[in-house]
Amino acid sequence: MHQKKKVSVGRIVTGRIVSVLPVVVLQGLIIYGIAKWLAPFATLFYSVLSVLSALFVLFLISNRGEGAYKMLWLLVMFVAPLPGALMYLFYGNRRTGNVLEQRLNATHDSIPISLNDGTRIQKQMENEDKRIAQTFAYIQRVTGFPVLRNDTAQYYPVGELLFEQMFSALKAAERYVFIEYFIIQEGVMWQAMVDVMEKKVAEGVDIRVLYDDIGSIGTFSARNRASLLKKGIKCEKFNPMIVLSGALNNRDHRKIMIVDGAVAFSGGINLADEYINEAHPFGHWKDIGFRITGDAIRSYTYMFIEFWNASSLNKITKELVGSDFAGTPSADGMDFDGYVLPYYDSPGRAEAASNSLFIDLLGQAREYVWFYTPYLLLGDGLRDAFVRAAQRGVDIRIIMPGIPDKKLVYRMSRSYYRELLEAGVKVYEYSPGFVHAKACLADDCIGLIGTVNLDYRSLYLHYECSALFYRASILKDLKKDFEESMEVSRERTLLDEKKGMVFGIINSILRIFAPLV
Known about the structure:
The protein is of the alpha/beta class. The chain has helices spanning 9-18, 21-38, 42-62, 67-79, 81-92, 98-106, 119-128, 130-143, 159-171, 188-202, 222-230, 296-311, 318-321, 353-364, 380-391, 407-414, 417-423, 456-461, 474-487, 501-512; strands at 148-149, 152-156, 176-181, 206-212, 234-238, 251-252, 256-259, 263-267, 284-286, 289-293, 339-345, 368-372, 395-401, 426-430, 433-435, 439-442, 446-450, 462-470, 489-491. The strands form 3 sheets. Strands 1, 6, 11, 12, 13, 14, 16, 17, 18 and 19 form a 10-stranded mixed β-sheet that branches. Strand 4, helix 11 (222-230) and strand 5 form a beta-alpha-beta unit. Helix 4 (67-79) packs antiparallel against helix 5. The longest helix is centred in the first third of the chain and has 21 residues, at 42-62. The protein is globular. Mean pLDDT is 86; it is low at 1-13.
């Protein structure tokens, strides 16, 4: 194996933030300049601004968006009307991602594979449990991805175990490998993958790497990309950061690796050493993922091709992927392991699929709903769903980090604890270190594993991917992992939460600005 490489905590944490500051500052200066240029025409623009402000308020109120998010922008426009209105147009409005969404939609006619038709499977689910089938039907309608019969899905409770399987699949690749991650960083994990990818390219394997420009801005440079291209590995960045483009949102937070249309990997794990505990900036890094085969591969492949073809001139063609997917069960009588619906969230859609799904699961649960999340910044609807479910006696539990990676976000997350605890929600903090896992499990029968955090960015502003399982054996492994994690976690109580007017005010202020982080 490769020699361990010391990873700087500063590079891991501050690098991703500091490297984007110049662009953010420049954008702020441009907005300030526009506002200052209009200042001499204050009398004229005061009347126009009053009308525009009223229209903005009416638009925000009538919009189906999250209440706390709308409240933040109303406050900004109230304090600084003209700069606030300009900031909303550039960053707060979902239309800032219209060009990107149009580019993604434009790829649909050229994607060389089609999604499976989930109609027959949906009807089969309705015969088993109509209420659960309605949940799957909703996700299918909103996202366009079908419910499928699950072939095999293997759960991995830590990143190092998942990486072993990813590495083995990479070494066995014969035709193509598709890699799409939010964060890629030099280190033991990435170098091991690059070494194998270089050999595979020499053998004729087509390898493509797609990374998020902001997610990897402090960890993966133009030099890294050039190095991959020199080795014959195709590499593109998603949604490049351009001044005044609104690109701070609409990030590709998905994590996907597909090999030969035969196996796919996903979960919370990025391609950096802390995710496999080769580096320990925040204690033990608790993350999860899964390996899946069968019909679900087609859905993940479709996701990747859509984003790749929208980002690259070197399109993926039918000649590369073909129409056959190894390991795909098709016969009606074939055994299968429950149901699965792989899908992705898009900030360009009118409905936030995962946010609505969580509210639905909390509303229909009879026994319990358990969550993994690194951040807890809840919108009004989801927060109320947690409270209502707990108050009617459902066992609601949330596992959070014991050691935070971002102290401000951690403090914001804790601002929700008292209200949740008072309602009966149980909150655990993982004592060994940081939890980066993202999962939900309800009543032993339905669960979600993917990339979605319980925060505004994941639920409303980023592209995310998840797999929704029903009556699949992977859920047993997920439950066991929840139980083992709770054994080494500290349960928070009301005695831990400070109260009083001062802390109440601080918590309220933190919640107002939660949609920004």
